[in-house]
């Protein structure tokens, strides 16, 4: 289907199903239950899942295929957000021109940064990208304040021109981002028995874009271009002596992944129209590296999975506090309850980083192929178990 | 005029004169062996032909054009392919993918942004690569992970990757080094077969005299960076200068 082979079509359909039904899948617990804490089906978080999914999918085109590890991709996220907000200020609140400008701008910056950084490989390449991103962060924070809003960030104002739109709504508010008049924040909440499901326009808009982005990445993975990128990772020397010039290929991969990051940045600004320099900070660059490695470097589905996992933990685990823990373990005798809460406490709330770090270490050590490899191992284990059962059940018959 | 003309090439590494005034002419459609004791400068000479090293002075002309100052991928696009002393293949890719990459490079040049069509739908390239694998008796390993193969098979694959580009000149740096006898004989047969099937010029660096005398039509003896003699295999065997160069090495 759509020029994909059977296996890739299946993956695409699975991702499509997951994103379409996310409001249900992420809200499995009744609203009033103790487990409602783990529901993640609210618009804000779902948007973040797919937006960071896009970021990670693009990052994987560079890192997963060529092996070049960029430590500065957050710079493109920031450029995307700033560009989008500027479009909201100057042109209109329609997200389409914002997204287009963001992708173009991040692509242009990626050409320059990539061209310079790709003169080196390995750790030197990583350091160069990191240096660029930190330089841009510092500039955005200080001398570029007229463009970036400096410390407070770039925000919309009532007196922005918005030449194709309106500066202010009749009620005197700043208009919100929309797609040809349909507001991104438009939501409907549907109660079903004890459950509640929220359908948000912004989420579905981002989800659709993520599906297109995912589809394009599958096409790239399977194309001669993708094959060449994998050859670069495998043996650049052989590639040189095979008549291929690796430089323009790696630059193309760098620019494409930069544009994905810019797209993600534009969508962030479309969901919440402000942009700050902290979006370019190195921790943000590091996060996308973690997402990709956690999910599975060089796999199709891994980055999406990794992005979802990290964002889920950041938002859900971090909200559990000691009161909630006490209420969960209230059925235990007091002393035991306190002990268990004390043991778990460092891993929740602000301690979610500790949990993430432990999971990350376990994955890197035991599953170098990421969570996707874990899934594959479980699947082949189940298959083998099924087979051996069949065999044993056949033995008596003989 | 040969297809490859090396004139007055010098190369120094610090105080060491690795190549001193090398002149070499390789005729089209011949197998030309370059032999010489360890450290004679054979690999250095080869590296000067493919753009890995730049000679300090002299000229290297291939097919009427200078190769000096060109990048390795440009020299390959001129029609020179190279087999390395230790096989250089794409170890993370499958065997067929290894052979398809040189096919794409030959068809599309050094760079082409070809990011939409699937590799699998490139019927011509797939067919070409499969045909090549069949020629080297590796079609059964088509989907194998190239890195997990034996050294002999890696060597065979590397040759397939070079040959599928139909190079005008194939350079081989000790293609049988570290091979078992059986693999060495297979390689000799493979190279003979290739020679019969198509018009190709080969320059082969080799330590194994059995390989040299089985294949070569011309032999150049290199010692301490300078060619001593260039002769046919019949005339080289008892040559006094060759004995001198190999003094202490019992191969000749
Ligand atoms: N990159 C290099 N730097 C310094 N010396 C080198 C380099 N490459 C080769 N040499 C020296 O040049 C001489 C010729 O080496 P080489 O061409 O590899 O010999 P061969 O292949 O005939 O055994 C040797 O003495 C070797 O140590
Ligand atoms: Mg050598």
TrEMBL record, chain A:
List the InterPro entries: ABC_transp_permease, LivM-like
One Pfam family in the UniProt entry:
BPD_transp_2
Question: Is Electron transport among the key words of this record?
Answer: no
Could you tell me the membrane topology recorded for this protein? Multi-pass membrane protein
Protein name in the entry: Branched-chain amino acid ABC transporter permease
Annotated membrane-spanning segments are: 12-29, 49-71, 91-116, 123-144, 201-221, 248-268, 288-307, 328-348, 354-372
Gene Ontology terms for molecular function:
branched-chain amino acid transmembrane transporter activity
Species classification: Bacteria, Pseudomonadati, Pseudomonadota, Alphaproteobacteria, Rhodobacterales
Location of the protein in the cell: Cell membrane
Primary localization class, coarse? membrane
Indicate the segments annotated as coiled coil, or none if absent.
none
Q: Which UniProt keywords apply?
A: Cell membrane, Membrane, Transmembrane, Transmembrane helix
Q: Name one GO cellular component term.
A: plasma membrane
From TrEMBL, chain B:
User: Could you tell me which residue ranges the ABC transporter domain spans?
Assistant: 4-249
Which Pfam family is an annotated match for this chain, by its short name?
ABC_tran
GO function terms (MF aspect): ATP binding; ATP hydrolysis activity
**Signal peptide as annotated in the record:** none
What keywords does the record list, in alphabetical order? ATP-binding, Nucleotide-binding, Transport
Under the cellular component aspect of Gene Ontology, which terms does the record hold?
A: plasma membrane
Q: Which InterPro entries match?
A: AAA+_ATPase, ABC_AA/LPS_Transport, ABC_transporter-like_ATP-bd, P-loop_NTPase
Q: Which domain of life is it from?
A: Bacteria
Matching entries from PANTHER family are given as:
CONSERVED COMPONENT OF ABC TRANSPORTER FOR NATURAL AMINO ACIDS-RELATED (PTHR45772)
What's the name of the protein?
ABC transporter ATP-binding protein
